[in-house]
Amino acid sequence: MKKVLSVLLSAVMLLSLVACSAGAQKTPTPENPTIRLSTTTSVNDSGLLPYLLPYFEEETGYKVEVQSAGTGAALQKAKDGNADLVLVHAKASEEEFIGEGYGVERLPFMYNFFVIVGPADDPAQIKSSANANEAFSKIAQSQSNFVSRGDDSGTHKAELKIWGKDNAPNAETDKWYISAGQGMGACLTMASEKNAYCLTDKATFLSMKNDLKSEILVSESDDLKNTYSLIAVNPEKIDGLNVDGANALISWMTGDEAKKLIAQYGEQEYGEALFYLIED
Q1: Predicted structure pTM score
Q2: Can you tell me the mean pLDDT for 193-203?
Q3: What DSSP assignment string belongs to 47-79?
């Protein structure tokens, strides 16, 4: 009799465990599970999105399709109806995007700094510069090689702003100025190979520095701050959007868990955070 009771008790416990296991299954898949995120190369090349998105996907059941390009191209993808939201870093272009009715609201949520990297021997002697504009002037005066994104990205727009409207070099006449038309990673590799200077976001540089000869020479001046924003695409302007998915990703990216993850990203591998939160 005791043996029968023991077998029955074991069966009951097994059924309970199966029921608990079924109840602990992952979040049900949303009705429209695919979110199309159009973003700048820096948050992808730096490894931030590959680090963050698995947490979001595991918790929500969504799958994020990341399209990575310069800010200009990223915003154009949204205008063409190929993105549900954008994550970019060029304020003037973002405001124009919203002003034209394509975006719902600009939500700045984190920042890092652009840095100017170059050869260790620093032929233009920019390391003592007070800011990026002074460093650029020294590069131009010495005609030292400089690799530009040249791709209408947020980084390219920031570079042109630093040069100033009337002082930007011309790649056709200024042979030391190289307009690459490439993403950040490719430009950093090119600058390293050519012993050239380059403007880059700090996060991407640190993620690649072991493979580069370049060093950070100018950093963290006021004209080098680099702010990132999330913008949901406007469903009144573009049809077929995953509005619920876009809002879910924005809510998560600006929530407490993502903030903690962003604040920690880079500390273990690089000894410092690669991105900083904009406090509410």
Answers
A1: 0.79
A2: 95
A3: SHHHHHHHHHHHHH--EEEEEEE-HHHHHHHHH
